């Protein structure tokens, strides 16, 4: 069982798909782990650290590999070096990238998209959306604090009192919950909103105040899978009115609202941004999916009237060492389900729902039901 760990080629991707810890565990499972030179360097991991963990470091790592671990989807340059039937595991970003899926199918690899992992209890430890969103939520507060020209906690000093910052979190999924907890730890006064009623109790249990239009539609806004639905135009208007009044009084707003398979909902208009006090900060964590905030620019911090809008891309990558450690463990736990520990070889259960839920390509075809070409469906 040869496992390859690829050095990411995208300059904006500092994460790595295996750490010395996971490489060591894979070796114990019977794998020979080969790591491309420099793969971990942006996550604070040296080649020598991998070698010490029992891996080899070589630019030929992917040649002949049975399993290839990556952060992002493989480009053609990597695909062309893989053997047929090789397993490739990554964050595949499959929506709207049919050509890339076709290229993986044509290369004959078995591609698994970690972000499609079913959200069932057994797979929680393999859930990359959660492990990375949690770090994003934390980092969003740190990034906001950095741009904010005032202190977060209330400070009573001999020279007078500095008031606590007012922080408003919009969207209380995994990232939002961590943002609430982090802002509270820094001493801010925190409020939060979401369209899913289940979040009200979660917000309150973290010591923050919940704010939402709690009508009939709100009571039914959660899907069976635990995700948000797209809200009606009427609801959005009522929500916008409530939010508009609240935002005027906030120092920092962090938006994390997403709806699976849809563009991010627009929650903050230009007028709302203009209504804020000078020196305010907004962080748009949904900027990669179209943005929650009007005027947010992907990859930039922009001054928009009185407020700065932060639109950093790949926010988990801003904590590369932590993000890699958690991502690598997510991959290891997933791989463990595919390995026969006694025989020390690959033994994939093709009927397992976590395999079926994440597998994009196999035997030259796109096999995932969400991405299969229409004619073959
Ligand atoms: P997400 O990233 O899809 O969305 C972030 C948040 O935005 C969600 O809370 C959503 O309700 C909210 N949102 C959408 N539209 C909005 C609007 N117009 N206004 C305000 N908020 C809006 O969510 P996520 O972090 O992936 O979490 C989704 C759910 O899945 C949560 O209930 C979470 O607890 C659950 N979850 C389950 C598991 C598991 O069982 N394995 C793992 C992780 C998360």
Profile the largest sheet.
8 strands, mixed
Radius of gyration: 22 Å
> What is the arithmetic mean of pLDDT?
96
Strands ordered across the widest β-sheet: 3-2-1-4-5-6-18-19
Number of alpha- plus pi-helical segments: 12
Distance between the termini: 33 Å
General form: globular
Total DSSP E strands: 19
Low-confidence stretches: none
Tell me which ligands are bound. Answer: nicotinamide-adenine-dinucleotide
What percent strand?
15-25%
- Roughly how much helix do the residues carry, as a percent range? 25-40%
Helix-strand makeup class: alpha/beta
Describe this structure in words.
The protein is α/β, with parallel strands linked by helices. It contains twelve helices and 19 strands. The protein has an eight-stranded mixed beta sheet with strand order 3-2-1-4-5-6-18-19, with helices on both faces. A seven-stranded mixed beta sheet has the order 11-10-9-12-13-15-14. Strand 18 (359-362) and strand 19 form a beta hairpin. Helix 1 (20-28) packs parallel to helix 11 (320-336), helix 5 (128-147) runs parallel beside helix 6 (174-185) and helix 5 runs antiparallel to helix 11 (320-336). The longest helix has 20 residues, at 128-147. It is globular. The relative contact order is 0.14. The model has no long low-confidence stretch (mean pLDDT 96). The chain binds nicotinamide-adenine-dinucleotide.
């Amino acid at each position: 069982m040869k496992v390859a760990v690829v050095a990411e080629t995208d300059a904006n991707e500092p994460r790595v798909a295996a750490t010395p810890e996971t490489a060591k565990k894979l070796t114990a499972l019977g794998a020979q782990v080969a790591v491309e030179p420099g793969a971990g360097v942006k996550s604070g991991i040296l080649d020598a650290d991998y070698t010490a963990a029992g891996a080899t470091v070589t630019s030929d790592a992917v040649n002949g590999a049975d399993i290839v671990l990556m952060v992002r989807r493989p480009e053609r340059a990597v695909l062309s070096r893989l053997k047929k039937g090789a397993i490739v595991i990554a964050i595949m970003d499959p929506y709207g990238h049919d050509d890339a899926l076709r290229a993986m199918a044509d290369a004959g690899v078995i591609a698994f998209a970690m972000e499609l992992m079913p959200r069932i209890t057994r797979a929680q430890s393999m859930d990359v959306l959660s492990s990375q969103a949690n770090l994003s939520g934390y980092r969003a507060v740190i990034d906001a604090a950095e741009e904010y020209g005032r202190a977060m906690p209330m400070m009573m000093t001999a020279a007078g009192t500095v008031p606590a910052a007012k922080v408003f979190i919009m969207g209380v999924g995994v990232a939002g919950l961590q943002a609430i907890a982090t802002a509270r730890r820094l001493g801010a006064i925190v409020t939060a909103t979401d369209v899913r009623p289940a979040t009200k109790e979660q917000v309150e249990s973290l010591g923050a105040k919940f704010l939402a239009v709690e009508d009939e539609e709100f009571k039914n806004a959660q899907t069976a899978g635990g995700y948000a639905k797209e809200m009606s135009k009427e609801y959005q208007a009522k929500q916008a009115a409530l939010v508009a009044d609240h935002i005027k009084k906030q120092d920092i707003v962090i938006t994390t609202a997403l709806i699976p398979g849809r563009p991010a909902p627009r929650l903050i208009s230009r007028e709302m941004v203009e209504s804020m006090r000078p020196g305010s900060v907004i962080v748009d964590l949904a900027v990669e999916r179209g943005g929650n905030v009007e005027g947010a620019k992907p990859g930039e911090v922009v001054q928009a009237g009185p407020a700065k809008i932060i639109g950093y891309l790949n926010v988990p990558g801003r904590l590369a060492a932590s993000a890699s450690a958690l991502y690598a463990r997510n991959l290891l736990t997933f791989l463990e389900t595919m390995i026969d520990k006694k025989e020390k070889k690959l033994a994939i259960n093709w009927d397992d729902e976590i395999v079926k839920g994440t597998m994009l390509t196999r035997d030259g075809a796109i096999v995932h039901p969400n991405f299969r070409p229409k004619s073959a469906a």
